[in-house]
Amino acid sequence: APEYEIVADAYVKESNVVIAKVDCTVEKDLASRFGVTGYPTLKFFKKGKTEPDAYNSGRTADDIVSFINRESGARGFIKKPASAVVQLDKSNFDSIALDST
Question: Which of 10, 18, 57, 80 is the most buried if burial means most Cβ atoms within 10 Å?
Answer without folding.
Answer: 10
